[in-house]
Amino acid sequence: MKNIMSVGEDGGDGRLVIVSNRVALPDEHGSLPPGGMAIALNAALKQRGGLWMGWSGKVRAEKKQVSPTMQEANGITYALADLSDKDLDEYYYGFANRVLWPVFHCRVDLAEYNDARKSGYYRVNRLFAESLMPLHREDDVIWVQDYHLIPLGKELRERGCRNRIGFFLHIPWPPADILATVPVCEELLEALSFYDLVGFQTDDDLNNFAECLSRRNLGRLMKDRSCLVKGREFRCGVFPIGIDTAKFESLAKLATRDGDLQEVYKKTAGCDVAIGVDRLDYSKGIDQRIVAFRHFLDRNSHRVRKTLLLQITPKSRGEIPAYLALQKHIAELVGSVNGELGTIDWVPVHYTNRSHGPLELAGLYRLARVGLVTPLRDGMNLVAKEYVAAQDPSNPGVLVLSQFAGAAGKLEGAVLVNPYDPEAVAASTEKAFRMSPEERKDRWSAMKDSLIGHDVYRWCDGFLAKLEAADLPA
């Protein structure tokens, strides 16, 4: 379903302004980075004309403050702001990813809060606000993306911005007791009240947010999903993000004719394949999954030498010690399993840190009889949806999905598991491999219908329609 609305369809002609930590800038051939969100937001921006602002990816001299670099591509204006090494360390690698990311994923034990990181986080949000103010127009609609920029709405309001401003959180919102571990939790909650619309992935996330407001005596969520915090009224909503289902389905069909993938198919012939695809992150449950796969082989001796796990795990955030430690731990775990169970002509876990393009991933998803998507906590998890979209309708694979992924509430045909219980995951993996063709088709069909009805374009349309309907701030 591809129907990107014009936010000004009710008579306005304002642009759409997207603000995010990074900008999905097309390459020299005009191709966009992989990912449904980048495609959908670019489509919305292109349709009505718009501006996308974010970090350029470049590092500037510490004291050199310059205006964003402006670029034009495909009818879209990109405003690219440089950050200093200090900004990156305190804002991105510091508060955003050593405080907010672990806490929002319920890993309080990994949070490393300090005042310098907090200061850097707010400083960069002020920088983004100051950079955007001269660029926005009176009738623009502004859409802020994700946890890096929670204070941006407040910073814009304090500089006189009266536009409609929306915020969408792509990661989970934590329970009240977990959020309370962040020393500035009340500031974060109050900052969200400066938006006109705050969007979450799931009802659980919205309910957690409402509980945080109530427990801090800041406000409460009404039946119509409006909130009042210190005299400021705003609305909340649930907008589960999807993928470009039709495009991913066509990629999977195309991949079956790709020469390199044909070689992979030949090399895995005679083996049943399970696949896991995750950025290297402690929230993804990769080490627990490998342990569960070891249990699966131990309890199903007939699967040894006939089944393998393909685990694709691009590295990320190597500047953060917790990620370096995880990288080492997983590599050692894979080595242990392969060393103990592998033979000269077969290894149980094929583990790679190389990134793969959309075509290659689609072909590998289609090859795998089982998709193992077992995060410990995830806002949505689009890998689950990509796996379903890539399947052959005449012989689909089975999705084994963590109950703690946001996608679990939308993909009712998945086999749901508790990733903290490796033996249960092992049993569900065997169930998935043994499932009859009729049951596999029934489960897949239900999930495919959900993907079509809730694709990334529906997500974009739904949020923007609700934001456009919001009252302008007084």
UniProtKB/TrEMBL annotation:
Coiled coil: none annotated. Belongs to the glycosyltransferase 20 family. GO terms for biological process: trehalose biosynthetic process. It comes from Mesorhizobium tianshanense. SUPFAM superfamilies: UDP-Glycosyltransferase/glycogen phosphorylase (SSF53756). It comes from the Bacteria. One of its GO terms (molecular function) is alpha,alpha-trehalose-phosphate synthase (UDP-forming) activity. This is Trehalose 6-phosphate synthase.
